[in-house]
Amino acid sequence: MAVQPTPSWLRSYAVIFTSLLAGASVVHNILKPDLTIPDLEKLENSSAEEDGSSQQVEMTKPATT
């Protein structure tokens, strides 16, 4: 007697994935989060103006091994 794969796993996966996407859609439609990436130069300039300092922040690359 051959064992047949049960479609219940596939159905469960589909239901869980669909509910995950539906939940995210509902939350994003209600809360409407701002998902834009801020411009670093504008943030640095505005924070330097607020502090009264004109310090430059130097960006360095992380060390690779």
From TrEMBL:
Topology in the lipid bilayer: Single-pass membrane protein
Main location class: mitochondrion
Transmembrane portions of the chain: 12-31
Keyword terms of this UniProt record: Membrane, Mitochondrion, Mitochondrion inner membrane, Transmembrane, Transmembrane helix
Keyword Transmembrane helix: yes
Comp. bias (Polar residues): 53-65
Subcellular location: Mitochondrion inner membrane
Entries under InterPro entries matching the protein: BRAWNIN (IPR027858)
GO cellular component labels: mitochondrial inner membrane
Gene Ontology biological process terms from the UniProt entry: mitochondrial respiratory chain complex III assembly
One Pfam match: DUF4516
Region of interest (Disordered), ranges: 43-65
Family statement: Belongs to the UQCC6 family.
PANTHER family assigned: HYPOTHETICAL PROTEIN LOC691921, UBIQUINOL-CYTOCHROME-C REDUCTASE COMPLEX ASSEMBLY FACTOR 6
Name of the protein: Uncharacterized protein
Organism: Marchantia polymorpha
Source lineage: Eukaryota, Viridiplantae, Streptophyta, Embryophyta, Marchantiophyta
